[in-house]
Structures are given as structure tokens and as C-alpha cells.
Amino acid sequence: MKERIIDWYYTFPIQLVVLHLKSNLFLLFLWLFTLLLATGQMGMNWGFMYLLMSPEYMGEVGFYSFALVGGAFGGFLVTWNITTYILHSPQFPFLASLQRPFTKFFMNNAIIPLLFLSVFFWTLIDFQWYYECWDGWTITNNLIGFIFGFLTTLIVTIIYFQFTNKDIFSFVKPEGKRPPNLEKPILPGNRIMTLETVKHAEYSRVRSYLTESFKWRPVRNVAHYEEKFLYKVFRQNHFNSIVLQSASIMILIVTGYMIESEFFRIPAGASYFIFLSVITSIAGVMSYWLHKWTAIFSIFLIIVINTLTKHEYIDPKNKAFGLIYDQEQVAYDYDKMDALHTPENIEKDKAVTLGVLEKWKAKQPQSRLKEKPKLIIIGTSGGGLRASYWTMQVLQQLDKATNGKFFNQTALVTGASGGMIAMGYYRELSLRKLQGEDIDLADQKYLENTGKDLLNPVIFTAVSNDIFLPWGRFEENGQKYPKDRGYIFEWQMRNNLDGLVNKKIGEYREPEINAEIPMMLLAPAIVNDGRRLLISPLGVSHMATPPHGSKYDEIGHDAIDFGKLMDKHGAEQLRFSTAIRANASFPYILPNVALPTEPRIELADAGFMDNMGLNAGHRFVHVFKDWIKENTSGIVFVVIRGSAPQSKPISERQGFIESAINPIRIMRRIVDIQDFEQDTYLSYTLDIFGEDFVDFIPFTYNEGEGTNKASMSLHLTRREKIDIINSFYQTENQNNLIRLKKAMR
Questions:
Q1: Which terminus of the chain has a smaller tally of CB atoms within 10 A, N or C?
Q2: pLDDT of res. 257
Q3: pLDDT of residue 411 exceeding 80
Q4: What gap in Å lies between CA 434 and CA 675, rounded to an integer?
């Protein structure tokens, strides 16, 4: 029995696993990381699982999308085998004596991939059954698509190696026939194999290997071969391997160049596996060339790239589409802030907004019970497509329940990321209906449009374009802007929303001034100093500083009026879709938007500062408190939340590592911290106006019983959409609907 255990331990497949555990931890990490993503153990809340479980191609999830993902996975598997073969084949010199050595290496190196595929397929079936609510045939069809793509890649690879790879018998020629000259080095840093190395190789103790016919064969002793023949076999195999590795990079470059073509825009899951192939190749090449210098070279390379981008020799930064960048940059300092937000500017902007409020009041119908209308302010939260879909559902249902009075009675809308995508869309639909277009605001198609996928094109572009080919440009109004994942996000969002968010910011000035639509305030965070950038077609300098008297001049500006800051750089020409994107630029998923300032400032998701827009809402009513008290019968804050506030403290046992990182874990509670701050703002507002004057009515998405909460992703599954729709009919939200209708009477 002991001898049998020892024999199994020294089989080639087991020894390869041992080798990976000892020498290839980074490459093993790629498998583990992918498995954690695929099973939802990592990044589930952000929807990364959907890249692999629900890939889209040309707007559909099905056989072809899964075939592309399967083909890309096959490419990653081949590349992983190629890389480990290049790095470690000299440690198994008996391979050179075999026919089709790479094929046999591939088969014996299958334990890790087979374990991965077993878990992957089980998760895929469970996901499609539970989240997508698909029937057995659809799931089977998708699995067949994945397997078809996977096998296609393997067959092409096998054919290539069949006709190009040689074994040692191909080089041992009859006397008088010269073999091809393959001893010339291909790359620097080669591992020179000598006969002494062969005899004492650590893994030369392998006793048996698995053949293509799944039979065990004993390992041959190769010490009697001349080392030059062994060397030629590995040299020639390595050259063919490099050809295939180069093909992966070329696929990424070609598809990245064609990001606007749906045909070339392969599923993000396929891009991910191709990206893994490239990373695996680079890791292998660096290790092959540099040996023990790999870590030092990697650090040096990072420093060089950072220096080049820091001094803008290479400028990969995303830009605000519509702004002018090729003229003198705007100074961004305290003097500039003071110059923009002077008392004169503040009074002028307040006067314009007061005119808007007067027109808003004039268009309100007389109530049977009250002479003055209630002023409605909507705040909507961030949270990817979950927040967008939920916001559209709530807006449609509230307008339907109030016969269109709800949005007509709304004076201001504000909020963060996903929620503001739907808000901007709904506001544009309302405007077009007012202008005479045949639009039913309750039409289900508008809700479905807000739930269309944005994740696949963004991740695809990040992998195929932003990392390896960040030089694509497009021209608009004489300005050149980068084609990156920010660009493709806007492109896809406009397509999903029927092109209705493709206006310039300045085009909303007249409709807002005439109170045809509610005023909208977008407030992305300024990464450099933590202030907010207030984007509006109207002047909003009165919103840039906490209201105060003239006595305390040291009270600083916690926000900047975008229109005034970018006045000479085409502020009114800013794309509305870009303003929405800047307001929703969650780190790494979307690039920060860089403005033409000196020093250059960058914008990130508004949710970091004010996830529901209530900070802005409370400041607005504070600034205009006198007018509101005199001209309205009260304020109604309608808050559309993509998730419920934290209901109870989180208590958990912590080990040494958790305790060590505990101080930085507070960043995970950023929304909860904002909830506490919102309670403070609300208490101030109640103190100013009185409790009878203010209504605070939330509509909160809560997952149904026995259902997982929808992720904060740019992709929604069918079950998640159903869950979000049904959430509006939960008891709490229906009670709040009754409260709203009562408050509006």
C-alpha cells in the first residue's frame, strides 16, 4: 500500500500540482481569483459574477455569447499550459523523448483546470436557474455553447502543435542529413539545459505519465541522448508557444480598436479570459527572461509608467466631453473660489432661481384644501443599475398614482450615480411629452431601457482598450477626446436610453428657467480636495457655501459652481451624458473625469459625498427658506433609496488580521455614515420650518423574502428586475405612497 501511494505521488499529474504549489503561486492565484468571481465569493455586490455567468454579445445572452467566453477560456487554458511548459519543461527532460510532448504535458497538467471547470459548471447551472429563471433547455444550450467554444480553441491549438512541434526523433537524422538550425537564441535569459541538469533535475524522479489514450506509461531515461537534441526540442516548442501567446495580445488590440462595433465587442467575460492569457504570458516571459530580477524590474516599470503619466508625456486621463482643453488651464485655488462665489454672483444666481420658483408656483393647480402648493424635492441614491431601475420604477408609479401631479409638483431633483441616470432620462421624457411628443410616461419600455446592460461594454473596453491600447481618440467641436471605458459607457447608455440623454447641459437652461421641468443638480466629488462640483445649467454659487451671515468670512466653500469655473472652456457645451457619468464614476469601474484646471482636478462618484442628494436638498431649502415659508404650504422630501439604512450595529468576532485592518474598515460604512449626517441635516430643517411643515417620505428597495438583494452592478438579472419591481408593492412603500398622496392634497 505504501509503495502504491508513493507511485501515485510520483506520477506526472501529481508532480505538476506540487510544482505549481511550490513555484507558480501567482499563476495559481489567477485561477483562484477567477473562481471566487465566478462563484460570487468576491465582487458579488458589484456584479462581477455576471461577467462570467451572464455574458452578453450583440445584446443577447445565449449560445454565441457563451461560445465566445468558452473559446476565450480555452485560450487562457492553453496559455497557462504554454507558460508553465516554457518555464518548467527543462525540469522534466523525459518530455523531449516523447512524441507530441506539449500535448502530453497539457493532459497531465489538467487537474487544476478540471477542478475549476467542475465548480464553474455547477455554479453556472445554479445561477441561470435561480437568477435568470431559464428553463433546462436554455441552460443546456448555453453550456453547449461554452463547451463548443472551448473545444474549438483546443482543437485549433492541437492542430497547430501537431504540424509544428517536433520530438527528439525528428532531430536525430540519418548521418549526412543536417537537422534545422534551432540552437540560435530566440530570447535573452534562456535557461540553458545541460546533461548534468537532466541527470539531477528535481522532477526527473517522475515515474509515469498519462498518454492521449488515458493510459499510464513509465518515464524513459533520457540521459543517453545528446543534450543538443534535447535542447532543440524545447527550443522549437518554446518558439511555437510564443506565437500563440502573441496571438492573444493581437486579439485584444484588434477588438479594442473596434470598440464601437457590436460585432467585435465580444462579451466582457471573454475579454477577461483573454486578459488573463496576456497577464499569464507576461508573467511567464518576465520570469523566463529575468529570473530573480523579475520583482525589481516590475517595481521599476511601475515607477516609469507613473512618472510618464504624472508629467503627461503619456496622458491616459479621461476628459469631460464638450469642454475645451487646448487653451490656458483654469487656476484652481482659494483665490479663484472666492472670485467665483462673490456676494454679487450669489445674489444674481439666487434671483434667477427665485424666478424659477415663481414660475413653478404659477403652474401648480389650486388645491381644494390648500391655497399654497407643497414643494417637492426628490433625492435619489446611487447603486448602479439597481438604483437606476428602482428610481424609474418609483417615478413611474408615483406619477401614475397621482395622475401626473407628482413630477409636475417637483421643483428640484438631485442625487448620485445610478439613480440620476434614470432621473435624467425621466426628466427628458417629461419635457418631450410637454413639447407635444406622444409619450406615455408609464410605458414599461422606459423601465426596461434603464435596466439594459452597461457592464459588458465597460469591462470589455477596460480590458481590450484602456490597459493595452489607450491611444484611441475621437473628435468633437475641434477637440480630441480619448476613446476609453468612459466613452463607451456614454455611448452604450445613450443607445440604451434611445439617445435621449445626448443633449448639452446648456440646452436645459430655458426649460429649467421656465419651470417646464424640475431643476437638476449633479454634484460629483472632487477627488483632489473632497469638495463637490455643482453641475447645473443655472448659476448655483449660492449652493457652494453653507448659508451664513457676513460676520464669519472664514467659512469656506465646500463646493464649486461648475458653470462659473468652466465658463471660458465651454461649460454649456458639456454633454449631459458626461455630466451623468461624472456623477456616477465609481473608482476603477469608470475613469475619473479630469477637468482643464491647474492643478488638474478629477471627478468621482457623487455618492462619496452625498449618496442621496439630501445635503443639496437641505441646503436649497435653507437658502430659500423665506420664499418657501411665504409661498408654499410645506416641503416634501421624496427619497428614492436603492438600499435600506443600516438597522442594527454589526458585531463580529475578529482575529488578529481583522483587528489590524479594523481602522480602515470604516470606509465600508460610508453610506451608513451619510445616513447619520442626513438625520442631522433633517433635524436642522425641522428646526427651521417646524415639524408640521416638512414631510420626509422614503421609497426603499428591499429584497423580497427568500431572495438575494440585487447587486450594485451595471448589469441586472431577470430575477433581480422582478424583485426590484415587486419591492414597490411592499407594505412600507405602499404606506409611504398613501402618505405622499395625502401630503400633496
A1: N
A2: 64
A3: yes
A4: 36
First to last CA, the chain: 86
The C-alpha cell that represents 434 in the structure block: 410637454
Q: What is the pLDDT of residues 286-311, one digit of tens each?
A: 666 666 666 677 777 777 766 665 65
- Taking residues 19-28, report their average pLDDT: 86
Please tell me the distance from the alpha carbon of residue 715 to that of residue 55, in angstroms, as a whole number.
10
User: How many Cβ atoms are within 10 Å of 671's Cβ, its own excluded?
Assistant: 20
Residue ranges per domain, the chain? 2-310, 330-353+375-645+692-744
Q: What is the band of 466 on the pLDDT scale with cuts at 50, 70, 90? A: confident
C-alpha cell at 173: 537524422
Eight-class DSSP state of 463: I
Beta-strand relationship, 216-218 and 559-561: unpaired
The C-alpha atoms of residue 327 and residue 318 are separated, in whole angstroms, by 17
Q: Give, for 242, the enclosing helix (H) or strand (E).
A: helix 227-257
Q: Look up residue 214 and give its three cell numbers.
A: 488515458
- Rounded CA gap, 16 and 111, in Å? 9
Give residue for cell 482643453. 325
Residue 336 has pLDDT above 80, yes or no: yes
Amino acid letter at 436?
G
Non-local (6+) Cβ contacts of 726 within 8 A are 704
What is the three-class DSSP state of 393? helix
The H or E element that residue 635 is part of is strand 634-641
Contact of 143 with 48, CB cutoff 8 Å: no
Q: What is the 3-state secondary structure (H, E, C) of 648-708?
A: CCCCCCCCHHHHHHHHHHHHHHHHHHHHHHHHHHHHHHHHHHCHHHEEEEEEECCCCCCCC
Q: Please give the mean pLDDT across all residues of the chain.
A: 81
168-208 tens-digit pLDDT: 445 444 444 444 333 333 333 444 444 444 444 444 578 88
Task: Give yes or no for a contact between 81 and 112, defined as CB atoms under 8 angstroms apart.
Answer: no
With a CB cutoff of 8 Å and minimum separation 6, the contacts of 495 are none
Give the dihedral sign, CA 610/615/620/623.
Answer: negative
Helical packing angle, 25-38 and 63-88, nearest 10°: 160
Q: How far apart are CA 197 and CA 182, in angstroms?
A: 20
Partner residues linked to 695 by β-bridges: 636
Claim: this prediction has a pTM higher than 0.70: yes
Q: Cβ contacts of residue 463 below 8 Å, gap of 6+?
A: 252, 268, 271, 272, 274, 275
Q: How far, in Å, CA of 510 to CA of 164, rounded? A: 69
Angle at 607 between CA 691 and CA 480, to 5 degrees: 135
Q: Quick one: the chain helix, strand, coil %, rounded to 5?
A: 60, 10, 35
Q: What does the pLDDT look like over 532-578, one tens digit per residue? A: 999 999 999 999 887 765 544 566 788 999 999 999 999 999 999 99
Q: At what angle do helices 25-38 and 12-23 cross, to 10 degrees?
A: 90
* Dihedral (Cα; 106, 109, 114, 120), 10-degree rounding: -90
Q: Which three cell numbers stand for residue 284?
A: 511567464
Distance of CA 548 to the CA centre of its chain: 40
Over range 76-90, report the average pLDDT. Answer: 82
Q: For residues 151-184, b (16+ Cβ closer than 10 Å) or e, as one string?
A: eebbeebbeebeeebbbbeebeeeeeeeeeebee
Helix (H), strand (E) at residue 202: none
Length of the chain: 745
| pLDDT at 194 (0 to 100) | 46
CA dist 238 and 285 (Å) reads: 11
Residue 481: its H or E element: strand 479-482
CB 110 within 8 A of CB 27: no
Beta bridge pairs of residue 480: 475
Q: Could you read off the pLDDT of 228-259 as tens digits, one per residue? A: 544 555 555 556 556 666 666 676 666 666 66
**Dihedral sign for Cα atoms in the order 45, 582, 535, 545:** positive
Half-sphere exposure of 66 (CA within 13 A, CB side): 21
